[in-house]
Specification:
The chain is of the alpha+beta class and 735 residues long. The chain is 65% helix and 8% strand. A nine-stranded mixed β-sheet has the order 5-6-4-7-3-2-8-1-9.
């Protein structure tokens, strides 16, 4: 009997349950699909353990954020369910008036919750399973590969996680429904539909003051956010900006309705037209009674837009130009007498032999080894494993970076004028006091030959600048275009106006910055004064030996392990990694980067960031849109007597539809507009500090975000309006 009655109620209330059910369906499907990413690994011909780790890492991050997503979906389901319960209070009162005990009414609600939950769970899992199969092809596109052995993949872990998560949510919903029905008086249930929500009428002058205050608080929050630059999240200015945004937005929505209604009612030529008085009062009543939920929705929309836009931008940072940034098969670097990579790009020594004397005193065995091999990295590596070296390495070229004592970037750029010095300070205040870094012309040409570039030519007394990083582009342009000059150990050198675009080593991005190319005689003079390289880079090209890149990478690691086994000791791993089979020393090799490794990492980061951005952004977006939709449908149903009254006094169907459309548009677009303002500030700061500095445009990610919002949010808005109009029109025809 209870089952039959519950099923009949669901069929009769299908209009109320549609958006609620579809949101549950999408929630289950997305939750399963994104938590099954790790199971897709078996469809790909993964060549290295690094590729498998990318899947595992992505799965771990998605699982970690799934807890947050579950809380958001739980809030959505509970909140939406509360509106549906309020809509049906009179129905429950009728049951009790006919003699049904409250326990049976609660049982009916429990059965309805179970039926809706099971249907959404089963269909959602089916949809999620199909979505996960489609995502496998998207994953393949992110990795730039094809699926070698396609098969339907079912993830037991994602299945169990989805079942447990949503069962917990449904249990909470069932308990909430039971508690709500059991603790309502019969008289309150019967008169629920005739009771209007009490509209709070606020003093318009207080609202005006609060509105102005909210704008001031938000302006202060924006200022603090811009000043912090979003560089460090523990910056007090970032905390003040966050609190200011939350408080300012809350006061904005609290004051808006009272302030606007007072303003519009005083503009008689606008206010006293058609159904504008009714529409304004409806909107004001809704905003006044739901300003807390509008505030929460605005914050979630801001977070959704920002996460998705920044996430898609980060994908570009990690993947754009990754092949150009890794032109060599592998790059081995030696941070000579420096276990801190920042010391390799900054030097303030006052004599050429300062580094050599310090290294000889602190690590004499490393210094002696380097001197014995003439600081030739390839010589040391080949000596340790000659056969494997000959089989693996086809070509190699070493580039040594030196610093010119007493010639700083600041002193050189001083000739170019104050604007150039300002650009340098903006880039790095530390770099302004650093000695200028140089490489010999022959070293640069050897590296260029490896990647098929034409050799450079320098006339007597000339030097050139190598730079391909966007972040240092302005400074590089100042140095080259100004044709400034400097003295290097008695040799006068003037810059040519050409900026050389040569990647000096494999890296996550283009990483050649403000490196001065000088005649070999300048470097020879430094060596004669006792200078040793500040940093050495050995770029290699693998031999045509029939092996895969992964196999050659493994062979290169074996060469390193033979040259400097872990038993040798040495400096801490630092940027070499704890899983390396070789010691991390100052010389001959501190760090190894291979092109295959960087490409695999870029693909993995692209997959992880893309899925995280889509996962979080999509769920938050549908959650906010669904809450607004359920609210509007419920409030439309509550206002049916008002619409019938409008029809009786002569309002046409077109006027009523227009009024309804305006109400829904304002209710949906108001929090979205405020969220877009917040997101524009945050994304603008991130774009200036990160994206622009690295040469990545944020326009593409913003366009993708706009499309997502238009499809998801706009879709919910359209369905809400069409459903609300159908409810109102049906009520008017039935009177």
């Amino acid at each position: 009997m209870l089952l039959k009655l519950a099923w009949r109620n669901i069929r009769h209330s299908v209009r109320d349950y549609t958006i609620y059910f579809l949101t549950l369906l999408f929630g289950v499907a997305v939750f399963y699909a994104f938590n099954s990413i790790g199971s897709q690994e078996i469809m790909f011909d993964l060549q290295a353990e690094a590729d498998a780790r990318q899947f595992q890492m992505t799965q771990q991050f998605l699982s970690m954020f799934s807890g947050l997503i579950a809380c958001v979906l739980g809030f959505l389901i509970l909140y939406s369910n509360g509106f549906l319960i309020r809509r049906r209070k009179r129905e429950f009162g009728t049951y009790m008036l006919l003699g049904m005990p409250s326990s049976q009414v609660s049982a009916i609600m429990l059965v309805e919750t179970v039926l809706i939950g099971l249907a959404s769970l089963v269909l959602g899992l089916i949809l999620g399973f199909l979505l996960s199969q489609a995502m496998a092809f998207f994953t393949a596109s992110l990795f730039g590969t094809t699926i070698m052995n396609y098969q339907f993949v079912f993830s037991p872990e994602a299945f169990v996680a989805t079942i447990l998560c949503f069962l917990a949510i449904y249990v909470v919903v069932a308990l909430f429904n039971t508690f709500t029905v059991n603790h309502q008086k019969l008289i309150d249930l019967l008169h629920a539909n005739t009771k209007n929500q009490r509209a709070t009428v606020r003093n318009p002058w207080i609202c005006l003051v609060a509105f102005v205050l909210s704008i001031c608080i938000l302006a202060y929050a924006y200022e603090q956010l811009i000043e912090s630059g979003l560089v460090m999240l523990d910056d007090p200015r970032f905390l003040r900006a966050t609190l200011g945004m939350l408080v300012g937005t809350f006061i904005f929505f609290w004051s808006l309705a009272g302030f606007v209604i007072a303003l519009i009612t005083r503009i008689r030529s606008v206010y006293l037209r058609g159904l504008i008085p009714f529409t304004v009062r409806q909107i004001a009543s809704r905003v006044n009674t739901a300003f807390i939920s509008l505030w929460a929705i605005c914050v979630m929309l801001f977070f959704s837009i920002t996460v998705f836009s920044v996430g898609m931008g980060m994908v570009d940072i990690f993947t754009n130009g990754i092949e150009e940034a890794n032109p060599y098969s592998a790059s081995l670097s030696a941070e000579v007498y420096s276990d801190d990579p920042t010391d390799a790009i900054s030097d303030d020594a006052d004599t050429p032999d300062a580094r050599a004397r310090a290294m000889q005193a602190e690590v004499p065995e490393r210094y002696a080894n380097a001197e014995a091999h003439g600081w030739d990295m390839a010589s040391a590596l080949e000596e340790a494993a000659p056969v494997l070296w000959a089989e693996t390495i086809g070509q190699s070229a070493q580039m040594d970076l030196f610093y010119v004592p007493g010639v700083t970037y600041g002193s050189v750029l001083a000739e170019a004028g104050p604007d150039a010095l300002e650009h340098l300070q903006e880039l790095s205040s530390k770099l302004a006091g650093s000695n200028i870094g140089i490489v010999s012309l022959s070293d640069m040409n050897a590296a260029r030959a490896l990647i098929g570039q034409e050799p450079l030519q320098l006339e007597s007394g000339q030097c050139a600048l190598a730079n391909n990083m966007e972040i240092s582009e302005d400074v590089a342009h100042d140095m080259a275009s100004s044709r400034i000059s400097f003295d290097a150990l008695g040799t006068h050198l003037a810059f040519t106006d050409r900026i050389v675009d040569t990647q000096i080593e494999d890296n996550a991005m283009k990483a050649t910055a403000l490196t001065v190319i000088v005649p070999d005689s300048v470097v020879d003079a430094l060596k004669a004064e006792g200078a040793i390289p500040a940093r050495s880079i050995l770029n290699v090209m693998y031999a045509d030996n029939g092996k895969t890149d992964v196999q050659n990478d493994e062979a290169l690691e074996e060469i390193l392990a033979a040259t400097q086994p872990l038993s040798m000791g040495g400096f801490e791993k630092g940027f070499s990694g704890s899983t390396d089979t070789w010691a991390s020393l100052l010389w001959p090799v501190t760090r190894l980067i291979t092109a295959y490794e960087m490409l695999a990492q870029a693909s993995g980061m692209k997959m992880m960031i893309t899925y995280l951005a889509v996962y979080i952004g999509f769920v938050l977006l549908i959650s906010t849109a669904a809450v607004l939709a359920v609210q509007q449908l419920s409030q439309t149903a509550d206002s049916l007597p008002r619409y019938r009254m409008l029809s009786r006094i002569g309002a046409s169907q077109r006027m009523i539809d227009r009024s309804l459309l305006i109400q829904i548009l304002v209710y949906f677009l108001l929090p979205l507009a405020v969220a877009i303002c917040h997101a524009a500030c945050a994304i603008g700061v991130i774009s200036k500090e990160l994206f622009n500095a690295l040469g990545t445009s944020v326009l593409g990610p913003i366009s993708m975000t706009a499309a997502l919002v238009a499809i998801v949010y706009g879709g919910y808005l359209l369905v809400t309006y069409l459903t609300s109009r159908s409810v109102v029109n049906g009520s008017l025809r039935a009177r």
